[in-house]
């Protein structure tokens, strides 16, 4: 028995077979055999093989008749192999002389079932060198040793990332393993992806695997045969699809025969990865004019979901590649064609599967990238307008922010560019120092503009801070800044931030800066720039001194200006300025060499993040010194100081997007809360999900303004236990801006108005469930959501508290309902803590501005609830009482509710026996009164949440006994008053506390009958 058998399938490789067999015969290790399987090759394969066999007894020839294909040819070779180990050698490849010697030595050290070796790749047929290198690098990457099922899973399990390739010809196998595996394989003819199928079956039987990629004696001629990159037409591509499908079916049949769920998953992984490889041929090898037809052929074999996903994958990847280059180019024509072909594929929405879910997810990302690319292309026109400007104010930004409608103010992206903003210039294009941004901050924008932009005026500001070009003097804070909130049209009007006005102001001056503030009055009143620097805890005092010394050495005539500045009390800040071209160029030529010299003499290795920004901080001081110098030497520049506006919320408004969930119907649920109410919110959402139907997906959206990020993260982590929900937070601050909203009830918070925003914030839903956060949910809210609203604006439950008050004798509530709310039937008044909203109809009927204007009415008692009742009367579907059971707060069930209409009262009482939602409406809450009505049900949910202890703390605080009031007993009245003339006689002879005085008081008590 030879040590190693070499199986050589041979078909149409007559031009290469001689080289292949010579390399076998010339092996330095002689204990081998070679089985050449002639697969009825029409060329001279038979003659070459026969001649070699005649010359070397170790070579045997097996002939197929008729042609059987590579899979069956390998099978025949394995059946004839007699060696202890076997590997496959393609007839158009070759071996280095010591290949078998290396394998024998390695297998003796590691006697495993499968030994995975490396390759030496030789490029043929004009293959590019970079392709050759990439292929060789990939196939020679070390892989981990493994045993048992890990062998097949490392290759085919998608969740493991396909850690190991499935090249059958790159492995040495124990021959007994190969014989067992091939005996279990299909005897059908297979095609292109047969390697994957064969490796799948062999690996499933293997028990030990070892990698030795340093052994690279197999010479692989990349570009020959089916591994080539020559173009193929749609018909040939269709045949490839059929081959792959047959291989996938064979893999599934094998997994089923083994009755292994793990192997079935791996077969699925094989299909997905191999389909990507097949689709790559569509992208690279099918001509553009035949791609649509080839896609149809692929769809006919694999279906629309799998085909569509692969085409959208190319759109995603190529669109992202264009975006990442940061180039303002039109969309690639081929990419547009692929996008059109992909969009033409229709995936039925009524058939949910893993493939359809993957399709929709890939489609979503691809469309997003294409939209961004289109936006970027559209921005080309904007950049062309920018280039026409002779006044250019650059706005430095490192994140996505709102921008004013201006051609003069031009954004420049700085810092790390994991996402390149298509609407911005980039400081790493052209001549630049972008890599210095962590130290130089906004100076990388200034340097980029200096070296790459031609204009008459150069200006600089920040995504948060802008000049105030208006003629109005605005109030400033203690740091000399105007504070405002949003970058929008209102702010543009307020601060004159339109191009006509900006140009009008700029052209009047040579230099514009922020105000030179008095440091005796602003910025904590440190008094001088030197003192301000020394007070900064993260800046090094020595850095300021060294910069001063560098300045004086390089520009001695600036020494006096530097001294006057550091010892004076005036400075402008923020590195904001606008200068004429000649001044700006002179300034840059002066400043950057100073900072470069400072950099060369500074060791930043121990600097904090803020200290690293020292060059940026120094540049603010250098700007002041530069301007002071030119004022001193009378450069005759026209100066102007403009106020600085600081926008606290420059980020774009948050926009919620529809979820990509296709396997379950979605139930959108909205809550409103603030940071203080997070524990209650958590309990409410948890109770909902504990009772939720798993066949639905719950899109939980929390409207908020101030919930801390760490709490949001804690909630997201906690609710990961429910795979059928998502949890999203959205800030509504901007939507409420400009509206004077307050509540007239101590138990109602400002968050109560958030429900009016739902129709705008979730435009992709026609119906939404709104729930208060002081409830617990015992039923499945999907049932509530699925209520047919019959065209009404909303579904709600009548408010028994309000209805009972209508019947109170004094009639005040009835008068309020009729005269203030203008209700025709006050007994239709509903409670707004549980609402099924017909958001589509509400959008058609009312705007957000209308709702919030209504809500600003100070005459309303119950604020938003009154607004909804006043403006939705007659458009309400009344829901079963069980869905909003208000608890017995302060004994109102027995004292007040009994005054409600009889049928209403009875319906409410029945609902208490089976409450689907319990609403703790009123001043008594479980977290303030743990003995209140239905409190035990609340705590059943609360104690399972991560904020349980916080709720307990509130209970303790609310129920702790008040500190006792210490009352000092009143002293008995004196027998003789303070002002009595008798005191003047008695006190000298009988002082207070003396025995005489006590004897006198005793006589007096006896005389009055007291003891």
TrEMBL record:
Pfam families in the cross-refs:
DUF4422, Glyco_transf_8, Glycos_transf_2
What highest taxon heads this organism's lineage? Bacteria
Residues annotated as coiled-coil are: none
Tell me which residues make up the Glycosyltransferase 2-like domain. Answer: 5-141
Q: Does the keyword Glycosyltransferase apply?
A: yes
Q: Mind telling me which InterPro entries this protein's record contains?
A: DUF4422 (IPR025536), Glyco_trans_2-like (IPR001173), Glyco_trans_8 (IPR002495), Glycosyltrans_8_dom-fam (IPR050748), Nucleotide-diphossugar_trans (IPR029044)
Please state every residue range assigned to the domain named DUF4422: 392-630
GO molecular function (one) = glycosyltransferase activity
Which keywords appear in this protein's UniProt record, sorted alphabetically?
Glycosyltransferase, Metal-binding, Transferase
Protein name (database record): DUF4422 domain-containing protein
Q: What's the source species for this entry? A: Bifidobacterium pseudocatenulatum
């Amino acid at each position: 028995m030879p040590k190693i058998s070499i199986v050589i399938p041979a078909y149409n490789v007559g031009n290469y077979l001689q080289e292949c067999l010579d390399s076998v015969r010339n092996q330095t290790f002689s204990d081998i055999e070679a089985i050449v399987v002639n697969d009825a090759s029409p060329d001279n394969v038979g003659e070459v093989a026969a001649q070699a066999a005649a010359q070397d007894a170790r070579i045997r020839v097996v002939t197929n008749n008729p042609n059987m294909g590579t899979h069956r040819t390998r099978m025949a070779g394995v059946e004839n192999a007699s060696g202890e180990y076997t590997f496959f050698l393609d007839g158009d490849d070759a071996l280095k002389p010591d290949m078998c010697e290396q394998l024998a030595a390695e297998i003796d050290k590691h006697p495993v079932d499968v030994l995975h070796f490396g390759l030496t790749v030789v490029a043929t047929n004009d293959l590019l060198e970079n392709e050759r290198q990439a292929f060789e690098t990939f196939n020679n990457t070390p892989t981990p040793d493994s045993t048992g099922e890990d062998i097949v899973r490392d290759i085919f399990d998608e969740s493991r990332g396909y850690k190991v390739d499935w090249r059958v010809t790159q492995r040495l196998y124990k021959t007994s393993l190969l014989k067992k595996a091939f005996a279990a394989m299909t005897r059908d003819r297979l095609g292109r992806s047969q390697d994957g199928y064969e490796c799948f079956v062999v690996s499933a039987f293997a028990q030990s695997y070892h990698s030795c990629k340093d052994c690279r004696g197999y010479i692989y001629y990349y570009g020959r045969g089916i591994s080539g990159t020559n173009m193929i037409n749609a018909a040939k591509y269709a045949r490839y699809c059929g081959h792959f499908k047959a291989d996938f079916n064979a893999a599934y049949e094998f997994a089923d025969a083994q009755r292994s769920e793990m192997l079935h998953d791996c077969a699925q992984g094989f299909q997905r990865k191999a389909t990507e490889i097949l689709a790559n041929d569509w992208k690279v090898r099918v001509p553009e004019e035949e791609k649509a037809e080839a896609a149809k052929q692929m769809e006919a074999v694999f279906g629309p979901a799998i085909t569509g996903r692969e085409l959208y994958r190319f759109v995603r990847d190529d669109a992202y590649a264009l975006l990442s280059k940061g180039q303002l180019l039109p969309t690639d024509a081929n990419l547009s064609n692929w996008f059109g072909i992909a969009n033409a594929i229709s995936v039925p929405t009524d058939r949910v599967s893993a493939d359809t879910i993957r399709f929709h997810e890939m489609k979503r990302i691809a469309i997003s990238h294409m939209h961004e690319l289109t936006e970027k292309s559209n921005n080309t026109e904007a950049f062309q307008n920018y280039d026409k400007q002779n006044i250019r104010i650059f706005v430095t930004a490192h994140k996505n922010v709102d921008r004013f409608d201006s051609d003069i103010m031009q954004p420049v992206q700085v810092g790390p560019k994991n996402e390149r903003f298509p609407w911005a210039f980039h400081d790493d294009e052209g001549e630049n120092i972008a890599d210095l941004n962590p130290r130089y901050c906004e100076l990388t924008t200034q340097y980029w503009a200096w070296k790459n932009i031609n204009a008459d005026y150069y200006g600089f500001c920040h995504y948060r801070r802008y000049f105030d070009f208006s003629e109005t003097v605005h109030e400033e804070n203690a740091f000399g800044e105007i504070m405002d909130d949003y970058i929008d049209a209102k702010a543009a009007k307020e601060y004159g931030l339109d191009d006509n006005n900006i140009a009008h102001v700029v052209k009047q001056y040579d230099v514009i800066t922020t105000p030179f503030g008095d440091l005796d009055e602003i910025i904590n009143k440190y008094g001088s720039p030197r003192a301000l620097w020394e007070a900064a805890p993260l800046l090094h005092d020595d850095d300021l001194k060294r910069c001063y010394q560098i300045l004086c050495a390089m520009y001695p005539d600036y020494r006096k200006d530097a001294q006057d500045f550091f010892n004076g009390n005036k400075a402008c800040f923020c590195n904001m300025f606008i200068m004429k071209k000649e001044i700006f160029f002179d300034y840059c030529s002066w400043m950057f060499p100073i900072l470069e010299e400072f950099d060369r003499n500074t060791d930043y290795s121990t600097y904090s993040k803020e200290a690293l920004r020292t060059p940026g901080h120094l540049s603010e001081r250098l700007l002041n010194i530069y301007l002071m110098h030119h004022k001193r030497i009378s450069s005759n520049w026209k100066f102007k100081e403009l106020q600085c506006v600081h926008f606290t919320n420059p980020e774009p408004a948050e926009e919620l997007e529809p979820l990509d969930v296709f396997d379950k119907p979605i139930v959108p649920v909205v809550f409103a809360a603030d940071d203080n109410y997070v524990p209650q919110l958590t309990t409410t959402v948890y109770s909902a999900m504990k009772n939720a139907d798993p066949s639905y997906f719950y899109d939980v959206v929390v409207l908020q303004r101030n919930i801390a990020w760490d709490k949001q993260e804690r909630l997201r982590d906690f609710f990961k236990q429910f795979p059928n929900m998502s949890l999203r937070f959205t800030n509504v601050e901007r939507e409420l801006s400009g509206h004077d909203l307050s509540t007239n009830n101590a138990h109602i918070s400002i968050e109560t108005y958030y429900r009016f925003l739902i129709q705008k914030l979730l435009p992709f839903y026609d119906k939404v469930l709104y729930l208060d956060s002081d409830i617990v949910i015992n039923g499945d809210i999907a049932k509530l959501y699925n209520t047919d609203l019959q065209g009404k604006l909303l579904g709600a439950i009548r408010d028994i508290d309000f209805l009972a008050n209508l019947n109170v004798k004094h009639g005040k509530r009835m008068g309020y309902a009729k005269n203030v709310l203008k209700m025709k039937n006050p007994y239709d008044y509903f409670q707004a803590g549980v609402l099924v909203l017909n958001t589509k109809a509400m959008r058609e009927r009312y705007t957000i501005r209308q709702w919030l204007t209504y809500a600003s009415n100070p005459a309303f008692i119950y604020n938003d609830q009154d607004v909804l009742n006043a403006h939705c009367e007659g458009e309400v579907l009344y829901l079963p009482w069980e869905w909003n059971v208000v608890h017995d707060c302060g004994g109102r069930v027995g004292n007040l509710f009994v005054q409600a209409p009889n049928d209403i009262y009875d319906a409410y009482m029945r609902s208490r026996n089976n409450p689907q939602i319990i609403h703790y409406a009123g001043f008594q809450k479980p977290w303030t009164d743990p003995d209140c009505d239905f409190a035990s049900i609340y705590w059943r949910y609360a104690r399972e949440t991560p904020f349980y202890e916080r709720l307990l703390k509130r209970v303790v605080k609310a129920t702790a006994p008040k500190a006792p009031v210490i009352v000092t007993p009143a002293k008995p009245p004196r027998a003789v008053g303070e002002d009595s003339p008798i005191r003047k006689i008695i006190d000298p002879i009988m002082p207070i506390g003396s025995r005489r005085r006590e004897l006198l008081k005793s006589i007096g008590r006896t005389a009055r009958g007291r003891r």
